[in-house]
Specification:
heterodimer, A: 326 residues, mainly alpha, MetI-like fold, 2 domains, B: 420 residues, alpha+beta, D-Maltodextrin-Binding Protein, domain 2, 16 helices, globular, transport (chain A), Sugar ABC transporter permease (chain A)
């Protein structure tokens, strides 16, 4: 009996989410009928619910309930108005705050820069796959930054990008004037995103390399025999074959950018200069910890949650669609 | 689809029912009888050891049956953690605060201490920073001030007299030109966090605003359109335009990159602190006590008298939810007792709130500072709310980069200041 049961579940996982659900539900139906006919062991009917209860309880008590409390809290006031309902007051204040607008605009900027953040590991992985000279060396070196904590990465780049730092010294030696990399509001956000990409692309690279491992080498050989150039090979063979990997990297990189840039921001710019590098996360931390506005911070958190929800739903849509294509 | 709609409806109704004002306002104490919990960010440091011993000894004389537990929190998370504690109405009985906005924003959760600390009012200085609506909420431990330190070695190199620094702004500007020719910057400035402008405002406030304007500012009647207030921001911009500041001020952290620039002799002046960091003890270590000077603010508006801007630096407050406020207040008093503060001054390198402590062993700079305490006044920026300070930090960065005018700056600050 155990052997008979495990096999379909393994197969369903391989078949992807949509297929998997269908397999399990049909299995459930088939399994339920003989049991009911066999005398209705009530305990056994409730068994599945009891077995999933701990997991459900943990999610409900530690995740969903606090989430609802947070949303509820965002409709109350701060300071003297602590505990009194203020309706959408906090949300109105948020959208009127130029700093929060900057934070949302920066989220937009991150979305725009996403293709770059995906293309870099994608290209480098392609080169490694195509065995450029020294590809073994690069494969390990590229992953190094991914094991450093954002605080350390931030501190390193703070020194490199300082006004009197080495990067400006190098620029000075070729006659280019110093640039205030982290002090110029038009540049700072790009620098922080650049450093974030540098620090995290190793992970995406590994995912790409795993994707390449499943690539059918015969396709590449066939393309070469047909006389395809490198560009044509990348465009017509590699990208279509890796479409699911690319989608996966897109989604994980987006989530990484939205949720784990706080450490870098805190160390490199503290949201400045002139508030130009604020992201919702940093705004929430600032309002809660520094400005003593926990309810306003909850409202900002709720908005960030909504953004993440949209990204998450898009992710599910994308994965479902690619599952159907298969 | 129908099921999904039903679940959303359940969710919305649930939220609406719960939304009729939840949040917190319970007033329970976490401490059991006979135990007080203290939160701070100092007690974990090695220098605090003898201070804590003195505090505990003093407190034992009053309440031998009450146990005291110190919980050291990381400073960068301190107010976040404290905010959570206040929100839940449970937390430490006694807690450490920075003076000014940090404590004033949170007085809802604190017990007024006026009745308990009456005896200490003469001995200790710096009460103003822990006072809101003429009620005292914490007993001061250290004083925090914003003196202008200068490097006498650079003065000599620039052929200036280290014994008599400039007393007027015009002379000071001329001195800075001489210092620039000697290859050093006039000010070591770090404004990455937007804190540089706060020190600027307070260090130069007493010689820019008239005495009446100064007192009105501290009392909360701030005229942002006054020419003297605008002058402070104009000078800030000018100092940036004339390259008097160290390079890349907007990307230099004040703590502690800008102080490092001063210590390493790359800049002649720094607007520093009196306690904790960026102060006489740190600078003595690198520059030696003979080379470190403290100067009065150069006079900017004729007829003004320079005074040292200072406030209570850190102080211990008592939480509203503590069981017996009298016992907790006694602990706060022990934390500011004479012996304890003497140990704090000697080991931590701070100007303690007890002005009777002899500091002659700490070098001429510290002695000058303590001698100026009597005529000192509360610092201008400490009177502002954290929201206005945050805005001022961003606007000051814009002034340095030239993307805003002084008129626009004072307009925005006035609006934020009025909003509270």
């Amino acid at each position: 009996m155990p052997i008979g049961n495990t096999q379909p579940s393994v197969r369903s996982a391989q078949a992807g989410r949509a297929g998997g659900a269908a397999v399990t539900s049909s299995a459930h139906r088939k399994g339920a009928r003989p049991r009911r006919a066999g005398g209705g062991l009530r305990a056994e009917r409730y068994a599945p619910y009891i077995l999933v209860a701990p997991a459900v309880l943990i999610i409900v008590v530690l995740r969903l309930y606090p989430l609802l409390l947070g949303v509820n809290f965002s409709f109350t006031g701060d300071g003297e108005q602590n505990g009194t309902a203020v309706g959408f007051g906090n949300y109105r204040e948020l959208f009127a705050d130029p700093l929060f607008q900057t934070a949302l605009r920066n989220v937009g900027l991150l979305v725009l820069l996403l293709p770059v953040a995906v293309a870099i590991p994608g290209l480098l992985a392609t080169f490694i796959y195509l065995r450029v000279p020294g590809h073994r060396f690069y494969r390990s070196v590229y992953f190094f930054p991914a094991v450093l904590s954002p605080v350390i990465v931030g501190a390193i780049f703070n020194m490199l990008l300082a006004f009197d730092g080495p990067l400006n010294a190098v620029l000075g030696s070729v006659g280019v004037g110093p640039v205030d990399w982290l002090g110029d509001p038009d540049l700072a956000m790009y620098m922080v995103v650049g450093v974030h990409i540098w620090a995290t692309f190793g992970m995406a690279l590994v995912v790409f390399l795993a994707g390449f491992a499943t690539l059918d080498a015969a396709l590449l050989d066939a393309a070469r025999v047909d006389g395809a150039t490198l560009r044509q090979v990348v465009w017509h063979v590699i990208i279509p074959a890796l479409s699911r990997t690319i989608q996966f990297v897109f989604v994980t990189t987006m989530i990484g950018m939205l949720t784990s840039m706080f450490g870098l921001l805190y160390i490199m710019t503290s949201g400045g200069p002139e508030g130009s590098t604020y992201l919702p996360e940093f705004y929430i931390w600032k309002q809660q910890g520094q400005m003593n506005r926990p309810a306003l911070a909850s409202a900002a958190s709720t908005i960030l949650f909504m953004i993440m929800l949209v990204v998450g739903l898009l992710q599910i849509k994308l994965l479902e669609r690619s599952g159907k294509e298969d | 689809m129908r099921q999904r709609a039903m679940w959303s409806a359940v969710l919305v109704v649930g939220l609406a029912l719960a939304g009729c004002g939840s949040a917190s306002d319970s007033g329970k104490s976490t401490s059991s009888d006979g135990k007080l919990v203290v939160w701070d960010w100092k007690s974990g440091e090695p220098f605090a050891k003898s201070y804590l011993e003195k505090v505990k000894a003093d407190f034992k004389k009053k309440h031998s049956d009450v146990e005291v537990e110190f919980v050291a929190q990381p400073f960068d998370q301190y107010y976040t953690l404290l905010g959570a504690a206040i929100q839940s109405g449970k937390g430490p009985d006694v807690m450490l605060f920075n003076g000014g906005g940090q404590i004033r924003d949170r007085v809802d959760a604190l017990v007024p201490l006026d009745d308990y600390v009456a005896e200490d009012k003469q001995r200790l200085a710096g009460w103003e920073a822990f006072t809101k609506d003429s009620k005292i909420y914490a007993s001061p431990v250290t004083l925090q001030g914003y003196p202008i330190y200068y490097n006498k070695a650079i003065y000599q190199k620039a052929n200036l007299d280290p014994a008599s620094p400039a007393t007027t702004w015009d002379k000071f500007s001329a001195d800075c030109a001489a210092i620039a020719r000697a290859g050093a910057k006039c000010f070591a400035l770090g404004n990455k966090e937007g804190v540089g402008i706060q020190f600027w405002l307070s260090s130069l406030g007493s010689t820019t605003l008239t005495a009446a304007e100064y007192d009105a500012w501290i009392a909360g009647k701030r005229d942002w359109q006054s020419p003297n207030v605008k002058r402070l921001f104009q000078l800030w911009k000018e100092a940036g335009d004339k390259k008097m500041n160290s390079d890349g001020a907007n990307s230099t952290a004040m703590f502690n990159d800008s102080f490092a620039l001063f210590q390493s002799g790359k800049a002649a002046h720094v607007m520093g602190l009196m306690s904790d960091v960026g102060h006489w003890q740190d600078f003595n270590e690198f520059l030696t006590p003979e080379k470190l000077g403290v100067m009065k603010a150069p006079i900017i508006t004729a007829g003004t008298t320079p005074s040292l801007p200072y406030d209570g630096g850190i102080g211990y407050a008592v939480a509203k939810w503590t069981k017996d406020p009298k016992v907790a207040a006694d602990l706060a008093r022990s934390l500011s007792s004479a012996d304890a503060l003497k140990a704090f001054y000697a080991d931590a390198g701070a100007i303690a709130a007890d002005t009777t402590i002899d500091v002659s062993a700490a070098g001429p700079a510290a002695a000058t500072l303590v001698s100026e305490l009597k005529s000192g006044k509360p610092a201008l920026h400490v009177a502002l709310s954290s929201k206005t300070l945050d805005l001022m930090g961003r606007l000051s960065q814009q002034l340095l980069s030239g993307s805003i005018t002084v008129d626009e700056v004072v307009k925005q600050l006035a609006a934020s200041d009025q909003a509270g």
